[in-house]
Amino acid sequence: MPAEQLTVQDLSESELLARIFPRLNHSPGVLLGPGDDAALIAAPDGRTLISIDTQTQDQDFRLDWNNGYQTSGYDVGWKAAAQNLSDINAMGGSATSLVVSLTMPPVTPVEWVEAFADGLTAAIIALGAPDCSVAGGDLGRGRELAVTVAVVGTLDGLAPVLRSGAKPGDTIAVAGTLGRAAAGWALLESDIQMDSLSSELRGLVESQCRPVPPLAAGPAAARVGATAMLDISDGLLRDAGRLAGASDVVLDFDPVALKVHALPLEPAAARLGVDAMPWVLGGGEDHGLLATFPAGIQLPQGFTAIGSVQAVVEPPGSGVRIAGQAADTVGWDHFAD
């Protein structure tokens, strides 16, 4: 049987792992990698950041989209790495290792699994985390594809940037893009066939399938004294509400600054006959950063100001405003959507 027709049920677990291991990124921070019951990871800072995330087929991604796009193993591997690297970035840290669990149906092509491993490594390197290794993981059999990644990171001596430190008078800023991944999702779910999209609109689809979190921005924000920060994974307004609640403040966004992020999405909005602004306000899978900084501080490279932090006035308490007006919370909820 030709190699390209192999499925995972045609190989033993050892044979499949032998195809995966050479494709994974390795760095000196992992003292003992795949092959034993557990990995051994250096922690020179004395503290360890850790996070975990899961992607499940037909919940977080589809293999076959309405517009004809087919999700590759490379896409899923890239996105699994990107969203976990982003969580460490949001604390002001740098990722040092990933542990990956891949559950798959027995008919999954071996080449899909190999592409998944390639996507993991490609994202780690391309996004700017070459010191992060895939330290190990697990393979399992199931009815659908599911990927769970646990990520470990270091603060390199910096204090972690929490969600709870924003203060009245701070500047609100974002790094990365807003709304591109949401626009890409809308195109994937539309009847507009993939092969008819312009290169510009194809780029939006890629932002959904292979997001590019600004990994240099998190440590840079920590170094200059960011007071609060989080990864925008579920939408700007929804995640801003979490930061506002944790800090007991009001985040007031500037509509003019938000419009700047909507302008590049207008061609896609026009093609779909919708408004681009909900993508900016509710789309989160670009995995940008939302941070607050002391007033007057020079923002680190990659951050742009989009509003200000205000004190709570009762009622209505902490929350999110746009030009002083209450903003409806939109965004992704794993159990409601």
Topology (elements, then pairings):
Elements: H1 13-20, E1 30-32, E2 40-41, E3 49-56, H2 73-89, E4 94-104, H3 110-126, E5 133-141, E6 146-154, E7 171-175, H4 180-189, H5 199-209, H6 217-224, E8 228-232, H7 236-247, E9 250-253, H8 255-262, H9 266-272, H10 277-282, E10 288-293, E11 303-310, E12 319-322, E13 325-326
Parallel strand pairs: 4-5, 9-12
Antiparallel strand pairs: 1-2, 3-6, 4-6, 7-10, 7-11, 8-10, 9-11, 12-13
Helix pairs in contact: 2-3, 4-5
How does this structure look, described?
- Helices cover 31% and strands 23% of the residues.
- It is α+β, with helices and mostly antiparallel strands.
- A 7-stranded mixed beta sheet has the order 8-10-7-11-9-12-13, with helices on both faces. Strands 3-6-4-5 form a 4-stranded mixed beta sheet, covered by helices on one side.
- Helix 2 packs parallel to helix 3 (110-126) and helix 4 (180-189) crosses helix 5.
- The longest helix is centred in the N-terminal third of the chain and has 17 residues, at 73-89.
- Mean pLDDT is 92; it is low at 332-336.
